[in-house]
C-alpha cells in the first residue's frame, strides 16, 4: 500500500512536470522570493536613510532657527538704530554748538593776540623813538658842548 501511494505520488509529480504546472509553480515561487528580497532591500535602504533623514531634518531645523535668529538680530539692530537716532541728532547739534563756541573763542583769542602784538609793536616803536631822541639829544648836547668848548 505504501508502495502504491508512493507510486501515485511519483506519477502525479511526473504529470505535473510534463504539463508545466510544476515549472509555473517554481517560477511563481522564484518570483515571490525575488519580490520579498526586493522589499527587504527597500526596507533596508529605508532604514539606512532614516538616520540621514533625521540628520537632514535636524540640519533644516537648525538652519531655520539660525535664520529666525538673524531676522531677530536685524530687527533688534533696526530698533536700536531708530531709538538712538534722536540722541545722535542731539549729540550732533551739541557738537556743532561746541564747535561754534570754540571757533568764536579762537577768533576772540586771535583778535586779542593781534591787539597785543600791535600794542607791543607800538611800544617797541615808542621805545625806539625815545631812544633815538635820547641819542639825538645826547649827540646834540655833545655837539653843543664841543662847540662851546671850541668857542672858548
The oligomeric state is single chain
Helix fraction, binned, reads: over 70%
Shape descriptor:
rod-shaped
Radius of gyration of CA atoms, rounded to a whole number: 61 Å
Q: Helical element count? A: 2
Beta-strand residue fraction? under 5%
Largest sheet: none
Order of helices and strands: HH
- Could you tell me how far the N terminus lies from the C terminus, measured between alpha carbons in angstroms? 201 Å
The count of DSSP E runs of length 2 or more, i.e. the number of strands, is: 0
The helix/strand class is: mainly alpha
Instruction: List unreliable stretches of 5+ residues.
Output: none
Q: How confident is the prediction overall: mean pLDDT?
A: 87
Pick out its properties.
152 residues; mainly alpha; 2 helices; 0% strand; rod-shaped; coiled coil
Amino acid at each position: 500500500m505504501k508502495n502504491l501511494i508512493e507510486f501515485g505520488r511519483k506519477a502525479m509529480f511526473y504529470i505535473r512536470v510534463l504539463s508545466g504546472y510544476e515549472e509555473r509553480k517554481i517560477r511563481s515561487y522564484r518570483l515571490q522570493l525575488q519580490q520579498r528580497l526586493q522589499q527587504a532591500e527597500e526596507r533596508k535602504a529605508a532604514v539606512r536613510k532614516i538616520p540621514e533623514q533625521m540628520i537632514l531634518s535636524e540640519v533644516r531645523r537648525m538652519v531655520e532657527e539660525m535664520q529666525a535668529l538673524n531676522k531677530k538680530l536685524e530687527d533688534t539692530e533696526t530698533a536700536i538704530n531708530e531709538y538712538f537716532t534722536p540722541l545722535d541728532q542731539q549729540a550732533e547739534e551739541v557738537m556743532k554748538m561746541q564747535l561754534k563756541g570754540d571757533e568764536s573763542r579762537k577768533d576772540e583769542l586771535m583778535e586779542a593776540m593781534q591787539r597785543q602784538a600791535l600794542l607791543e609793536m607800538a611800544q617797541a616803536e615808542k621805545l625806539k623813538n625815545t631812544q633815538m631822541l635820547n641819542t639825538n639829544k645826547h649827540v646834540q648836547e655833545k655837539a653843543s658842548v664841543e662847540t662851546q668848548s671850541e668857542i672858548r
